[in-house]
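User: Please fill in residues for this 201-position structure.
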């Protein structure tokens, strides 16, 4: 199994890059795990307490479960990937049966911060987009897809998102094998990654 980790700040285009990579590859040959599915279970908290969680700090992620699941997949064992709701700030209780594939992609803002998880990646990719570009994309996406308003996104950006990005996410570039510039759609980089994957299929 080839395991590819794709990191980068919020709004840099990780999900879009993954979808572009999957396009034109044979259906079902490449599996995807999102770090977002592994936000810690917050059922014991009130809605207000959940809203106040710092979702950009590594401690918000259940790295133990994510690492265990990736090792299971590597050992050819299917996993039940949790399903996460950005509206409720919690796992939904549903799971998604995820089967081992020849190639697995793991994507998320913090996936390179955990040494044990990082060591499982054969290829580490960091997607880069400038800060202003990422904020604009995040604003538009969170309002249209994640039930947020302008004030909420900007407050979160100032209080946690930007400081956490500078402290935990940007420094992870040092571990990247490939950095994809993604201020604009980067078809050349996508083709290169797809070629690497095709060699393993
Ligand atoms: N290269 C790009 N140029 C313009 N918009 C982009 C680009 N990549 C992604 N987007 C848009 O930016 C938003 C955030 O992208 P997404 O892939 O969800 O980022 P991430 O998963 O890194 O948070 C989406 O609305 C997406 O369509
Ligand atoms: N309940 C939550 C959980 C996370 N976030 C934000 O999601 C961002 C990571 O996801 P991307 O798709 O943007 O990589 C992260 O910056 C968290 O702030 C949230 O808003 N609500």
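Assistant: Residues filled in for all 201 positions:
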């Amino acid at each position: 199994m080839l395991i590819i980790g794709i990191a980068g700040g919020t709004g840099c285009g990780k999900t879009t890059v993954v979808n572009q990579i999957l396009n034109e590859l044979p259906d079902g040959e490449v599996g995807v795990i999102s770090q977002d599915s592994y936000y810690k279970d917050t059922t014991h908290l009130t809605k207000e307490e959940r809203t106040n969680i710092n979702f950009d700090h590594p401690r918000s992620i259940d790295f133990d479960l994510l690492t265990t699941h990736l090792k299971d997949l590597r050992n050819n064992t299917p996993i039940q990937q949790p399903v996460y709701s950005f509206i409720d700030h919690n796992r939904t209780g549903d799971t998604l049966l995820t089967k081992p594939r020849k190639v697995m992609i793991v994507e998320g803002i913090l996936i390179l911060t955990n040494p044990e998880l990082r060591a499982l990646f054969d290829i580490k990719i960091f997607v880069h987009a400038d800060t202003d570009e990422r904020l604009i994309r995040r604003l538009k996406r969170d309002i249209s897809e994640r039930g947020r308003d302008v004030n909420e996104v900007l407050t979160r950006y100032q209080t946690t998102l930007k400081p956490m990005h500078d402290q935990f996410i940007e420094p992870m570039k040092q571990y990247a094998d490939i950095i994809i510039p993604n201020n604009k759609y980067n078809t050349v980089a996508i083709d290169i990654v797809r070629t690497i994957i095709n060699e393993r299929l």
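For context: The beta strands are 2-7, 30-34, 79-85, 90-98, 103-107, 123-128, 178-181.
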